[in-house]
């Protein structure tokens, strides 16, 4: 068994679901009467559903009762689920399956570390659920990223100390969580946005052959 393990974020690393979150949040903002742009949507990446709503309401300078917020969270998720239920393997991001194949070949275990409460459904939709050695998602944690809880539970599932775990993330909050957990952070996406990451790649297709060998003790 390998001395290292990998923890994957889901949305934006394995699958491109940010566009579906955006559609559902934008619809909500339209109904509340303010503009919600793709740039605004960047602020919601990696952030929990509840915090996302708070950020969105701040953008629109809208104040709502707790009861109304709960109602909105349910309807936003229903709309999001209507998109998710149509997903298939075509929506796996480039390089993701090849990377899992590489890890399998090297005997390196990997788990999921996602803020989403819909993670299992999404992985099942795209046919990747069975490949992970464990799932840590928004249902398993009490503190959302940038708190490191989701990744620390992932390390326990991998049966490895945090310093032996490599995290793949596309969100600032996720890179911060990995760094706080003393794991190796790999930022997938814009290097300037994810400048706190230990390593940066534009996409999973860019991970060089032999990338993992430098970590194996
Ligand atoms: C993260 C996404 O993976 O999951 C966030 O990057 C999202 O944008 C969060 O808010 C929670 O997702 P869900 O599926 O529980 O609403
Ligand atoms: Mg993400």
> Whole-Å distance between the termini?
12 Å
Q: Summarize the amount of helix as a percent range.
A: 40-55%
In what order do the strands lie side by side in the largest sheet?
3-2-1-4-5-6
Task: Provide the gyration radius in Å.
Answer: 17 Å
The unique ligands bound to this protein are:
6-O-phosphono-beta-D-glucopyranose, magnesium ion
Quantity of strands, as a count: 6
* Biggest beta sheet attributes: 6 strands, parallel
Walk me through what this model shows.
The structure is a single chain. The radius of gyration is 17 Å and the shape is globular. The model has no long low-confidence stretch (mean pLDDT 96). Helix 1 (18-32) packs across helix 4. It has helices at 18-32, 38-42, 49-60, 66-84, 96-106, 119-125, 149-158, 172-180, and strands spanning 5-8, 109-113, 135-136, 165-169, 184-188, 199-201. A six-stranded parallel sheet has the order 3-2-1-4-5-6, sandwiched between helices. The protein folds into two domains: 5-15 and 89-214, HAD superfamily/HAD-like (Rossmann fold, 3-Layer(aba) Sandwich), CATH 3.40.50.1000; 18-84, DNA polymerase, domain 1. The protein has 217 residues and is of the alpha/beta class. It has eight helices and six strands. The chain binds 6-O-phosphono-beta-D-glucopyranose (BG6) and magnesium ion. The site of 6-O-phosphono-beta-D-glucopyranose (BG6) has 18 residues, from helix 3. Residues 10-11, 21, 44-49, 52, 77, 114-118, 138, 171 line the site of 6-O-phosphono-beta-D-glucopyranose.
């Amino acid at each position: 068994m390998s001395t290292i393990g990998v923890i994957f974020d889901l949305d934006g690393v394995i699958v491109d679901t940010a566009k579906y979150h955006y559609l559902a949040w934008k619809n909500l903002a339209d109904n509340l009467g303010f503009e919600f742009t793709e740039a605004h949507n960047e602020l919601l990446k990696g952030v929990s559903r509840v915090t996302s709503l708070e950020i969105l309401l701040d953008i629109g300078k809208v104040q709502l009762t707790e009861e109304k917020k709960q109602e909105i969270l349910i309807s936003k998720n229903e709309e999001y689920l209507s998109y998710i239920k149509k997903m298939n393997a075509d929506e796996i991001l480039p390089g993701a399956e090849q990377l899992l194949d590489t890890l399998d070949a090297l005997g390196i275990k990997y788990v999921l570390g996602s803020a989403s409460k819909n993670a299992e459904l999404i992985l099942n939709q795209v046919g990747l659920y069975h490949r992970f050695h464990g799932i840590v998602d928004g249902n398993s944690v009490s503190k959302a990223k940038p708190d490191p809880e989701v990744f620390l539970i992932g390390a326990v599932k991998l049966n490895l100390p945090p310093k032996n775990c490599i995290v793949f993330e596309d969100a600032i909050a996720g890179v911060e969580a990995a760094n706080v957990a003393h794991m190796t952070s790999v930022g997938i996406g814009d290097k300037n946005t994810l400048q706190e990451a230990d390593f940066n790649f534009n996409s999973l297709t860019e991970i060089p052959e032999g990338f993992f060998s430098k970590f194996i003790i």
